[in-house]
């Protein structure tokens, strides 16, 4: 059954987040030959439309308003409701990001629709759409079938590969106006704790440190390795609680859930709550002094040794490549 499916694009620091392209890829599967319409919401965002076409969007709709410069639940839900009214889609895909996790249930509830969240793959089988999502902190996967009605979906970053970029693609850009009013919150200013580096939830490589790193200074060799690999630095809650790094780096059940191509765990014991946030990484390398550490049970490659010796060696070797 061909469907019209919307895919919400997200912009951060002046660039489209990769999850915008992953949402298009998921929307293509859900659309089953139908139309995929990317949605851009913000202030002066139309210039991002081309990149969405290059990644597979058939059409782009743009909602521009001064109240959409920063995300607010009220502002964005009014913008998206205007798009839904106009486009009458059969599916809507969001990234499973802070924005998508906040906005999608709000809209699904308003429209009395179902929501399949944190999807890691979508397949079509015998006319049914099958959504796979992790449950029990990633220890098992469940498959959900969408029956009828409007389908709301959030896709976990780094799981559904974006379509190959094709600069020959183009399409129609349509502006939709939304009457955005009665906002209960207005963002006046965004103060970022960290301004540099790769976004942790979208990073292809993560070098994470635990209590074994021993100090804020101890994170330096991990930062160097991450830089050489073009990756991001993450942390266990142990390291955050000890004050070695900011909580925005925490990975795990109560932190960020990540699925990079390569996860290098340094001085992390592998508590179940940490594994909940990283065990679905494609390749896991663990560096730990204790050969019995639990992290080795999920690691593809284990290095028993002192991280302060091993990490600089790895950095030197990767620099040569
Ligand atoms: P430790 O368990 O202290 O491990 C340190 C490791 O470093 C040890 O294995 C040690 O052998 C090794 N080491 C020490 N020195 C070196 C060295 N020089 N070289 C190499 N290895 C060395 N934790 C999370 O990470 N994320 C979460 O989201 C999270 N949520 C939680 C939610 C709840 C409700 C609860 C109760 C706990 C949660 N935790 C979470 C905490 C979790 O249970 C662990 O306490 C925490 O993950 C331990 O962090 P760690 O592995 O860095 O420290």
Automatic annotation (TrEMBL):
Residue ranges of coiled coil: none
GO molecular function, one term: flavin adenine dinucleotide binding
Domain Electron transfer flavoprotein alpha/beta-subunit N-terminal: 5-195
BP GO terms, sorted: fatty acid beta-oxidation using acyl-CoA dehydrogenase
Entry note: cofactor: Binds 1 FAD per dimer.
Cofactor(s) needed: FAD
InterPro entries on file: DHS-like_NAD/FAD-binding_dom, ETF_a/b_N, ETF_a/FixB, ETF_alpha_N, ETF_asu_C, ETF_asu_C_CS, Rossmann-like_a/b/a_fold
Residues the entry annotates as binding FAD: 211, 236-237, 250-254, 267-274, 288
Top-rank taxon, per record: Bacteria
Alphabetic keyword roster: Electron transport, FAD, Flavoprotein, Transport
SUPFAM superfamilies named among the record's database cross-references: Adenine nucleotide alpha hydrolases-like, DHS-like NAD/FAD-binding domain
Family classification: Belongs to the ETF alpha-subunit/FixB family.
Entry protein name: Electron transfer flavoprotein subunit alpha
């Amino acid at each position: 059954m061909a469907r019209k499916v919307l895919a919400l694009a997200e912009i951060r620091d002046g660039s489209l987040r990769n999850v915008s392209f992953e949402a298009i890829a998921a929307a293509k599967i859900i659309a089953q030959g139908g139309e995929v319409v990317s949605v851009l919401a913000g202030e002066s965002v139309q210039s991002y439309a081309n990149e969405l076409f290059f990644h597979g969007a058939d059409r782009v709709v743009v909602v521009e308003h001064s109240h959409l410069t920063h995300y607010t639940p009220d502002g964005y839900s009014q913008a998206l409701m205007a798009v839904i009214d106009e486009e009458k889609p059969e599916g809507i895909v969001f990234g499973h990001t802070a924005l998508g996790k906040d906005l999608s249930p709000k809209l699904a509830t308003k429209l009395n629709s179902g929501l399949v969240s944190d999807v890691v793959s979508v397949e079509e089988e015998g006319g049914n759409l099958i959504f796979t999502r992790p449950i029990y902190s990633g220890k098992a996967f469940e498959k959900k079938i969408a029956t009828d009605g409007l389908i709301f979906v959030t896709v976990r970053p780094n799981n559904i590969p974006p379509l190959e970029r094709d600069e020959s693609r183009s399409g129609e850009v349509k502006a939709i106006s939304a009457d955005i009013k009665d906002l209960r919150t207005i963002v006046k200013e965004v103060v970022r704790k960290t301004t540099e580096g790769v976004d942790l939830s979208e990073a292809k490589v993560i070098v994470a440190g635990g209590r074994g790193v021993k100090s804020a200074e101890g994170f330096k060799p991990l930062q160097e390795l991450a830089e050489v690999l073009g990756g991001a630095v993450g942390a266990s809650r142990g390291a955050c609680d000890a004050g070695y790094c900011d909580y925005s780096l925490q990975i795990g059940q109560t932190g960020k859930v990540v699925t990079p191509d390569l996860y290098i765990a340094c001085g992390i014991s592998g508590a179940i709550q940490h594994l909940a946030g990283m065990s679905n990484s494609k390749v896991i390398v663990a560096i730990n002094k204790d050969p019995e550490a639990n992290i080795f049970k999920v690691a593809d490659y284990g290095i028993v040794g002192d991280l302060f010796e091993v990490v600089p060696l790895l950095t030197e070797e990767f620099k040569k490549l």
